[in-house]
User: What shape does this take?
Amino acid sequence: SADKKEFRKLELLAEELLREALALHQQSDLERSSTAVRNALGILYSNQARFAEAETHYRACLAIFEAQGYQRGLANATNNLGSNFARNGRHCEALPLYEQTFTLAQAVGEALMIAIALSNLGSVSRALGEYAAAERYYQESLTRCRAIGERRWTVAGLNGLGLTLLEQERFAQAAHQYSAAFTLAQEIGSQPD
Assistant: This one.
């Protein structure tokens, strides 16, 4: 369709601009700031199912943040690498990365990143058939999201919890979570993940 062609053109333009920005950052020896560009390229490639290319950029971010001892950056890059693996069906590899993200986020007191890590742990646990763990992670993520007023990740957590319950054929409980997710999503103008 015309919309898909236009979207693809925009993706290609974004990729070209990001590559140019990365080259400029590398020429200027702005290593840490290049991580923002690498992260954006990683997200773009992961969304396009170009997982190996995304992994390369996420690992470069990890190396830079590791060398600089930047824990917040490590948490973010570790989470993104875990998400890249999860999108690629590599859930067993994503799990320890999400656990590491949680630990790093706790160490720096990053409340939102803690909640995101918990939600991602719920997602990968569900994918691995560990439903009790998935429920615990989603519930804890929801508690933390509500405590800080984070509504988008509350929607994602409700949706993930609903899916976990649905896969266990706990239909009434799943419907309740989906209803709450839908209501909140409408309030904030979002779609549940």
In short: The mean pLDDT is 91.
